[in-house]
Amino acid sequence: MEQPEPIALKDRVREFLETPHFAVLATAGEDGAPHQAVIWYRLDPDGRILVNSRSGRRWPAELQRDPRCSLAAFDEADPNRWVGLAGLVESVDEDVERARDDIVALAHRYDDATESSVAAFRTQPRITFRIRITAVHEHLAD
């Protein structure tokens, strides 16, 4: 199967995604049924989306089986402002220590890095995915 080229993001889309908005990640189950989860994410400088989860959850298992996904990030103050992305998992980092570092960095990004949350994250089996954006649908005011 031919791989779509990565998408060059418009400045307003990049700026929106660099802000810590909550996002909904959609994956496909073995039977093709959609599954959604509310997640934290980070837009990396190379234009990939980083997501992280505790190992053993449904959506990480689905991403490991089928790399296709979509993500919708929305502005909590104005949910009519949002960006939708289609993507493919480009890399999976199963190194637990690096993945724990990733979730702690996300906790700081989302202002949820309490002593107890960081301590809990540091004990969990974690996994990190980097998603190459293949399509963008934006609903941002000019």
Q: Would you kindly provide a written description of the structure presented here, covering whatever features stand out?
A:
Strand 3 and strand 4 form a beta hairpin. With 142 residues, this protein is an alpha+beta fold. A 7-stranded antiparallel sheet has the order 2-1-5-6-7-4-3, sandwiched between helices. Helix content is 26%, strand content 42%. The longest helix is centred in the C-terminal third of the chain and has 14 residues. The chain is globular. The model has no long low-confidence stretch (mean pLDDT 94). The chain is built from 4 helices and 7 strands; from the N terminus they run H-E-E-E-E-H-E-E-H-H-E.
In brief, what are we looking at here?
The chain is an alpha+beta fold.
Helix/sheet category: alpha+beta
Shape: globular
Strand content: 35-45%
Oligomerization category of the chains in this entry: single chain
Detail the poorly predicted runs: none
Distance between the termini: 36 Å
Strand numbers in spatial order across the main sheet: 2-1-5-6-7-4-3
Q: Helical percent range?
A: 25-40%
Number of helices: 4
Element-level helix/strand string: HEEEEHEEHHE
User: Biggest β-sheet, characterized?
Assistant: 7 strands, antiparallel
Mean pLDDT: 94
- Rg from Cα: 15 Å
Number of strands: 7
Kindly list the characteristics that best describe this protein.
single chain; 142 residues; alpha+beta; seven-stranded antiparallel sheet; 4 helices
Show the helix and strand layout:
Blueprint: H1 11-18, E1 22-28, E2 34-39, E3 42-43, E4 49-54, H2 58-65, E5 68-75, E6 78-93, H3 96-109, H4 115-121, E7 126-139
Antiparallel strand pairs: 1-2, 1-5, 3-4, 4-7, 5-6, 6-7
